[in-house]
Amino acid sequence: MKFNKSPLLFAPILGVVMMFCLGMIFSGTVSLSMNGFAIDKDGYLYVGKEKEIVVFNEGEIVRTISPKTSRGYQFTILNGEKILLSTSSVAYTMDLSGEVLSKEEDENIKIYDKLQREKSFFTAEDGTEYHSRLYWGRTQICQNDEVIYEMPLLDYIVRVLIVVVFIGLGVVLLTTFYPILREKKR
């Protein structure tokens, strides 16, 4: 029975890369997903990340807002002046600085489901339509076809590295153990 050790030499490298990626995610340095986006009445862009809502004006960060939860959430902006955020069990109405104005139960997760369905599209108060898309796995927010926001490069690199690590792990396992399994069938 032949055991191919050479692919196992890559396992520690894959492990180190994965630990780097997980450290970046758990520390909040990178965010791999978007929990919605919206535009307020002044044209500021709000982008929901895992641990915060980041507010941009012409590509520059203006402020961050705590989503008041450690769980997943979805959000939008109502009438250009209030944030509606749902954690699937609780829905918050907040002012644009993040101060909670009201809190209610999200009965049967209706608000969360509605926000989840609409998280890729947003229509501003002036009727301007925005949408999010993936371009080679990198999240972008567009007004018509003009990109107004793009996932930060570090976030994108970590996202790609995670995919590479999983593919690499599959290749290591397959090339290491497949010959053994094939030989056992004989």
Tell me the fraction of residues in β-strands, as a range: 25-35%
What is the number of beta strands? 12
Instruction: Please mark out the parts with pLDDT under 50 across 5 or more consecutive residues, or reply none.
Output: none
User: Biggest β-sheet: count, sense, barrel?
Assistant: 4 strands, antiparallel
Q: Could you state the order of secondary-structure elements as H and E?
A: HEEEEEEEEHEEEEH
Strand neighbour order, sheet with most strands:
1-2-3-4
Helix content: 25-40%
Please name the CATH architecture of the largest domain: Beta Barrel
Provide the gyration radius in Å.
21 Å
CATH class of the largest domain: Mainly Beta
CATH topology of the largest domain: Thrombin, subunit H
Class inferred from helices and paired strands: alpha+beta
Q: How many H/I helices?
A: 3
